[in-house]
Amino acid sequence: MRVFGEPGAPADGVERGDTLAAEIPVALVFNGISHAVMMATPERLEDFALGFALSEGILDGPADCRGITQQAVDGAVAHLPAGVPGIEVHLEISTRCFERLRHRRRSIAGRTGCGVCGVESFAALDLEPARLPAHDWLARIDLPLVLRAVAGLHALQPHNAQAGALHAAGWAGLDGELQLACEDVGRHNALDKLIGALAGAGRLGEPGFVVLTSRGSHELVRKCARVGISALATISAPTATGVQVAELAGLRLWGLVRAPRGVLYAAGGSLAA
Residue 217 in contact with residue 204, Cβ under 8 Å? Predict the structure, then answer.
């Protein structure tokens, strides 16, 4: 690549090498039937598939997934451009969940910026998730705690440090220490990878919260609420609908978390909170 505009550089630029983020098509296949193709960073793909299945309501719980495998796709057979690899992630899921999936009238070709590509009706948006249970520890997720977690996220983003262009989703306990982080070119994907990793380790439902290097969109809030995550902190601002969904779900939502400040948009907990 050629870089222009640096101090002291010649007018015709400077040639340099660069590291770029990987972004490849990943097909999620349930009991042999392809359901969605997503553009994703090719790591933690089994976590990604499990997290997607849980956060999209395809599975009721991790036990409904009986096995996950992945395989490379022949680019020529899949009609992919030369040099673009593809991966299929196969999930074997319970008969109950598969039958429900077959009857869902939704075709997802991939997440867009708004996160609702392929929904066929307003009702299918599912903007009012089931209300989360009240937790006495929720109020402990205060500004010092979320600032501490966000400050620790950079050290757990090795790919972004090299290439830029990647989002991260991190999980922090009630001490504000980040315990896990997942990277991806897509913010939805990064969150799904984190959800899948937590689910695979049997940790969904633990006290703690998610931090995201993104805005707090309605889709990200809904994904958290659907799997029982009760608190979310984002570096950028939420959308108005993201806040509304958080209030409906009883999810504690912090936004614009950039030291030394942060904004609590939804307190979480009971309706009176």
Answer: no
